[in-house]
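Lecture notes, continued. The same structure-token format from the folding unit now serves as the input rather than the output. Read the line below as a description of shape only.
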């Protein structure tokens, strides 16, 4: 299995998602803001990325746009949760 990377604030949806992925024996790295997410995506390979479009700092959509224009084509799942 590959590593999963998550960029999002910690919410109930995220807690449940992380538990499910870890229960399926995925290694999950998690950061809370877009700047940290950008750094991690440039310095490691991930099998997939879970991304909250409204993450703090660099927005999730800007993070995704930057990754794509730099040639990073990792699969990304946009994960949103209503307030």
């Amino acid at each position: 299995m590959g590593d999963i990377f998550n960029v999002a604030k910690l919410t109930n949806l995220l807690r449940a998602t992380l538990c499910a992925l870890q229960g399926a024996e995925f290694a999950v790295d998690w950061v809370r803001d877009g700047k940290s997410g950008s750094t991690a995506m440039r310095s490691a390979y991930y099998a997939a990325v879970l991304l909250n479009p409204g993450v703090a700092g660099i927005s999730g959509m800007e993070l995704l746009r930057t990754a794509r224009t730099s040639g990073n084509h990792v699969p990304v799942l946009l994960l949103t949760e209503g307030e």
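Point for the exam: Residues 12-23 form the longest helix (12 residues).
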